Amino acid sequence: MQNTRTLKFDWLTIFFFLALVTIGWFNIYSASYTDGGSGIFDFNQTYAKQLLWICLSIVLIVFILALDVKFYERFSSIIYIVSLLSLIGLFIFGKNINGATSWYALGPASIQPSEFAKAATALALAKYVSDIQTNISEFKDQLKAFLILALPALIIIPQPDPGSALIYAAFIFPLYREGLHFVYLLLGFFAAALFVGTLAIGVLWVSAIVLVIATGVYLKNRKRKPSVFKYVTIAIACIGFALSVNYIFENVFEQRHRDRFNIVLGKETDSKGIGYNTNQSEIAIGSGGWFGKGWTEGTQTKGNFVPEQQTDYIFSTVGEEWGFAGSLLVVALFVFLIIRLLVLAERQKSQFARVYGYSVAAILFFHFFVNIGMVTGLFPTVGIPLPFFSYGGSGLWGFTILLFIFVRLDAGNYYYT
Amino acid sequence: MRKFLLLLLVMITGVVFAGRLFYLQIYDTSFKQLSEDNAIKTVYDYPQRGYIFDRNDKLMVQNQPSFDVMVIPRDVKNLDTLAFCEMIKMPKEDFIEKMRKARVYSPRLASPILPQLTKQEYASLSEKIHKFDGFFIQKRTLRDYEVQHSANVLGYIREVNQYIIDRNPAYEMGEIIGMTGVEKQYEDILRGVKGVKYIQKDRFNRDIGAYEDGIYDTLPQRGKDITLTIDATLQAYGEKLFTNKRGGIVAIEPSSGEILALVTAPNFDPGLLVGRERSKNFNQLSRDTTALPLYDRGLLAEYPPGSPFKTLTALIGLQENVIDIKETIACRGGYYYGTRGRKLGCHAHSSPLSMEGGIAKSCNAYFCTVYRRIIEKYDSPQQGIDNWRNHLMSFGLGQFMGYDLPAGKRGKIPSSRTYNAMYPNNNWYSTATISNAIGQGEVLLTPMQMANFTATIANRGWYKKPHIIKNIQDYDTIPGQYTDINKTTIDPQHFQPVVDGMHEVFTNGTATFLQVPGIDICGKTGTAENYTKIDGKRTQLTDHSVFVAFAPKDNPKIAIAVFVENGYWGARWAGRISSLMIEKYIKGEITLTAMEDYVLNGSLMHEYEKPYSGEPFNINQ
Known about the structure:
Chain A: It is found in: Membrane. Chain A: It is a multi-pass membrane protein. The complex is a heterodimer. Chain A has helices at 11-32, 46-66, 69-93, 113-130, 139-156, 162-166, 172-177, 182-201, 203-220, 228-252, 255-264, 276-286, 299-302, 314-347, 351-375, 393-412; strands at residues 95-97, 100-106, 109-111. By secondary structure, chain A is mainly alpha-helical. Chain A has a domain at 23-174 and 285-412. In chain A, strands 1-2-3 form a 3-stranded antiparallel β-sheet, covered by helices on one side. In chain A, helix 4 runs parallel beside helix 16. Chain A is globular, with a radius of gyration of 23 Å. The N and C termini of chain A lie close together (8 Å). The mean pLDDT of chain B is 87. Classes of the chains: A mainly alpha, B alpha+beta.
């Protein structure tokens, strides 16, 4: 045997990645293409910049894959702390783009540290959960795990960028996989239901429904002599949550967030005003038909009817120009990639790699779920990008790093010859 | 379970998204239409309407550019009202009112503030208007009338309204359509083909270039010019002769069926329906319900033809072989018929008369005799009438004639059914219809039909359908229906005696003083009784003055029918107008200046006021 080390990368994952990035770039080209540009190397053009980012990300990938597999586990805490510091630094050095101070200005480019913080948090969480002394079914350790997640989210929210902060909820899936009680998922689900319910029908109705359900369950179980106190506490907690949601909605949220929720909940139907984005996006996608209008032939896309089309709404270009067939292909690619990541994660021998892989899958799923849900008008407008697709160097690099660290971890598990 | 929850969620999400996409892209088709509406702007490039020429290539109608000062109220910013009003020379109050109306109409769409600038105004304004946000100058094309007559022939155009668009999808808001006259008849030729440009818009509704680099765009094709058979000089002269009179003239070239003049009076200057005052003028014209200036009497008015109709009675008599041209018939001051000594009166003239004399002197008794023989030749009056009617139908009477103008009436030639309906048990005899013999009774003709049968007599037995189109640009021929020869049921040999009789009208008859030196005219006077209802009572009005003529007798160049409403004797007004028209057309100048003065200065306005003033009418004095 030669004394060489060979790595077996999961080429299927890499194939999905390359496919998504390539399709993504062609759609960015179409969405930002104007007659004014002078070819794909005119770096005033969005699509040219994105091409540059893609090329640089290949270099990044080589670098990530070249590092020793132990590096990530060993340096995860330091990476996490550096990431937190970079987020905090925004309050001092940050640059305001579109109302959010989420960027560092570096010459002609801007860097958004929150895109990199996801990978850092995933590393830190994987490191903590896989620690021999951590038992995630214990409340004390749960608290610490939540703290790891909450820190970056709490820094990101006031930038303000609640969309990016929302993504940290995705980490509940790897935690559940590692032994977190199901009740947390239920709690999360009920919290979401109460949240939406409060906004949709108001605090009074939600309180009434909570009381009716609590009474009903109590009466049904009364033969077992349940404690009245428990039911009352839960009911009060629910109503208190609804009240605080109402308070947060009215006082912490900005008007644009309120508007977005109201549209999706059917309270506002002003298609020219705040509902414009979603409405135009639906029109663009809807006009695609079976096979779309063809690349760079989308009339809605060319007319820039869909705002933020290169970034958050890039999927509407897919829908218009590639039709049902193309949209379905992209959806399928995402679903297959995430499933592949889950399969790989389950296969990992080290808990660190498994938790990390699960985190990657959960984060990608959250982005995919929220973004396409928003673009197709199923969910509220939350400004988060579609991974590998949306324009933006930070986003692309953030997801590339996130994904390829796992590709490296996965490969590192196999052969040392 | 822990291993599969997220997996399950991913799959469910994939399926839900696929379903949603299917709904948006395949199932719900409303999005497709919406997309076409809001991303592609369709801009039309309107073609110039074709020009209209007369038979001598004199330009009658062309186009003129028109410039309007428009405003988009929403875009008006920091307006210095005083300076602007000074620039467009408009009182400040008017301007404020116009701005208010524009805002009420639409804050986003353009409204005219000052329509139809003169060229000087346009020159000075076009340099300054850009300083005022929200205002701009829009170019349009309007009709430019080179003549002040022929409004009824040319017709008018208008912007299409929703009613027209709903029924004719080829038109869109803002387009022009011909409503009457040749503008309507030849709309498809005159309008041209509009050009289309597809422009890609962005979400601010700004143009960002041609859609697909303009491969679907088309250029406008200018409307084709048409040449009419109208002689503009003759037409203008005819309208002038009708000053202060009501009625109509139809002049036809017998050999071709070309309409030389189609006069209705009162008429109006076609230029009235162009420009700033259009709607005001149009309202004025359409509300004049007594003079009816928009009513084309030459085509629409159904008059009792009166004595000119006797020429047809004579022709049918000859064809049916019930009279010989040599046979004379006595007149004792009228025609007596029936068992109770009923009489249809006649005027004083020599007696007895043969056919030529009968026509020349317009003897009622002669033609009543002939008519009765025509009807009574058959076993029943029903058969007789229907046979008589068939002869008349072959002259194009009692039906739409198929000429190329979008207005017309059938006139009326009664049939057996007409009288069967009038008399119970079909119990009627030829005498009940005796007035038909002399063009009264149930017979009604339009001036166009009068002119056509006159042309048919001039041709000795055939006619070509009257038409107004002489030539269409880029077409070699006019529709074949206007070059086909229509033969009548009367044998050509029977026409010469009638023509001779009509010639005698001028040499020794009712129109001797209407002779034109050097031109052999054949004609027939008519003094047509007519009735109206005044206060619910059937009242006889002053007779219509009627005249038909053609000239010269051999190789006729013009056949003409003239109606002068309530003008009394046929020779007095209609005859004079006929002679003047014939001289004008054949000689190109007027030598009968005394006659011309009489006609030009004569007015029948007092006649037309009688039904309202209560003055008595002159009837058969």
